[in-house]
Amino acid sequence: MSDTLGTETASGRQSQGTPEAGDAGKSASPASPRAAGRRRSGRARMRLEIAILSGPAIIVFLAFVIFPVALAAYYGFYRWKGYGDPTDWVGFDNYKLILTDPAFHEVLTHNLLIVVLSLLIQGPLAIGLALLLNQKIRGRSIIRILIFVPYVISEIIVGTGWGLLLQSNGAVNDLLGKLGLESWQHDWLSDPDLALWTLMAIITWKYIGFAVILMLAGLQSIPDELFEAAEIDGASYWQIQRRITLPLLGPTIRIWGFLSIIGSLQLFDLVFIIWGPYIAGTAGTSTMAIYMVAEGRNAANFGYGSAIAVVMFVISMVVALFYQRFVLRRDLQGAVTEGGDR
Amino acid sequence: MSATTAKSANLTGIARRRRPDRGGDQVKQKWGNPFTYLVALLFIVACIAPVLFIVLGGFRTNSQFTTDPSGLPSPWSVGNYTDVLSTQTFWGQFANSIAVGLASTAGIVVLGLMVSFVIARYEFKFKGAMYSLFAAGLMFPLVIAITPLYIMIKNLGLIDNLLGIIIPQIAFGLPTTVIILVPFLKAIPKELEEAASIDGTSRLGFFFRMVIPLSTPGVVTVSILGFLGSWNNYLLPLYVLNSQANYTLPLGVQALSASQYSQDTAKILAFTSLAMLPALIFFSVFEKKIVGGLTGAVKG
Known about the structure:
Distance between the termini of chain A: 38 Å
Largest interface: A-B, 110 and 104 residues
CATH topology of the largest domain in chain A: MetI-like fold
Largest sheet of chain A: 2 strands, antiparallel
Radius of gyration of chain B: 26 Å
Strand content of chain A: under 5%
Oligomer: heterodimer
Number of domains of chain A: 2
CATH class of the largest domain in chain A: Mainly Alpha
Structural class of chain B: mainly alpha
CATH topology of the largest domain in chain B: MetI-like fold
Number of strands of chain A: 2
Number of strands of chain B: 0
């Protein structure tokens, strides 16, 4: 469809008389009828433009994003220590190993827990805060800036700061002691029963601002007339939130959910910085990405590490496809009107 | 808005009865519910307190940390900050972060704008495939590709070279850029292109003379995201850079907290504050654009 269309638009534009293109057509094919020559040269010219404009981006993208991912898939079939070319082909052995590797099962469990807990903790919290902040209150713009600060500062800074705060002799325990809450003092980072919850608290702190800002933007796209109409019809505040706001906020919530799930599955920086690959293992906060780096780079099992990367990618991909198929599908069909009907 | 409210309120008797309430609401709307402010305040304190701990911690001394881990600086000492600011290490890493950030952003914008223009304004067979290719790139985070990417960079001889960070950052920045810029470029009216064409401007001329100036707001959003992403990137520099002289600030923070200074909490915090300051300033200046760009991107 687009090819013929392209020819038409291109030739159409030529017939509007781009002087240099017409000349090029003449010199390129003097024997053929003028129009055909023009069309051909117009098409060639268009192809050249497309190649020049899109070539660099596509080459860089294929070379540094797609190719490494493909390489990971390839290395995943070898037992390889990273020196020279991989030669020790082991077929699906690395993948079979993953299926029976208790350490991998443990990190996978952590990732799944983080996915579920992030949705359950951040979702309601962000919606509630956004509803609250969406009222016409003073200082809205400064509030927005301040709640976004944790999202803007880098993981390394968040990790360093929280790492110091939560040390067993750090500021948090000290503050609890000052408040007379000695029994609340804990070894936040290394107690295996607690560390995952500490991680969840830090994740929530870091990413809740992003969720709130998204929800706020979603709320602001709902036309005021709907609320006014409902109010005129005598709907209560909670009825309005449940029947109008939440359904219309649906697309935003679902897209946030998608971003949150993918982010949780691929969590790396925070855990790596606060716990490091080895302590994360004993504290029970290790994730698939941490395990991959620990195996691949630090233990030099590049083949096995690559297989883990592939499994991570496949899990993310499957989750993404399912999510798009069953959750986002409604959004792709214009959920705003659908949601409004209910 | 209040004018329309008043007009529609006049339409029904029920509404008219409710008008005094509405008036009350509007008075309230000026300040709103005290509960709202309380929750907002608590939320902000929760968001900012750890950041303040870092910044204020830089004004303390290590003995203050030992005796009172959660106290305020007393007395305030600026020694840590002046120490950090007078080191070659900090300024070298600062310059590296700036250089990497600017080069990556420039690459993302130039390559991204060109390919987005093709996807948005040309009709050809592989247009849809091209868009899907970049959109699928959102599914390939750096973490998944890091091991082979590291090996590739090593084979290219770019280990411990800033280019070894810049090029992959451009590549991984392209998906977001394309997704934000394509709708933006599509929105430029066709008539403008036709008018330019009648005036004898080729499509490339149209690109340089019209598209680049008209797409400035989208480009600003993309640049900010690109720069912040680069400024905060940790994983790639961790793999690629070995020598302290080439470190970017995130690696500098890590090196400091893992080195012989790891007991020097106050200095680590001062260094950390100074490392995050540029990103914070940058963000407060462009806050509206970042938030607008993010939500625009999410809504596709």
